[in-house]
Amino acid sequence: MELVPFKDTGKAPAQNFTGDVYVTSIKTPTEPSRLTAALVRFTPGARTNWHSHALGQTLHVTEGVGYVGTRDGKVIRMRAGDTVWTPPGEEHWHGGTATTFMCHIAMLEASAEGDPTTWLEPVTDETYQSAGN
Question: Which CATH class is domain 10-131?
Fold first, then answer.
């Protein structure tokens, strides 16, 4: 057993996010584990680009209210305490509402091929705004 050193929070890369998003790494893959986990904080209106994960992703909301949306138009409104699973390959996005912060722990496994996330185009304002309806 070991205490893992605290990692600094950094701003998420603008090429994969709209708005201000901050990430604190919790766990990076260390053989034989392939687990990646991070605490992700979204300011109001902030969101990810469309993306998918080779082996799926689990989101556990720790604070606030946010959305997860899929290409077929399904939107889940998630609140603190909720856990959402996105299956392997499902294109989705997530973020805070227009008026609230949202913080979640994102957990996923790295695939044998490497990077577990495929980043795609930004979510349009129209798609984001329709999530709140």
Answer: mainly beta
The string of DSSP codes covering 83-119 is EEEE-TT--EEEEE-SS--EEEEEEEE-BTTB--EEE
Query: Omega before 87 cis (within 30°)?
Result: no
- Are 75 and 31 within 8 A, CB to CB? no
Say if pTM beats, i.e. exceeds, 0.85: yes
| Main-chain dihedrals φ then ψ at residue 68, nearest 5 degrees | -130, 130
Cα-Cα-Cα-Cα torsion 16, 24, 42, 64, nearest 10 degrees, comes to 150
Task: Name the token pair of 92.
Answer: 């989705």
Assign 69 to helix, strand or coil.
strand
Rg (CA), the chain: 14
> pLDDT tens, 37-56?
999 999 999 999 999 999 99
Backbone angles phi, psi at 21, to 5 degrees: -130, 135
**Contact in structure between 42 and 103 (CB atoms under 8 Å):** yes
Q: Which residues contact 111 (CB under 8 A, 6 or more apart)?
A: 34, 54, 55
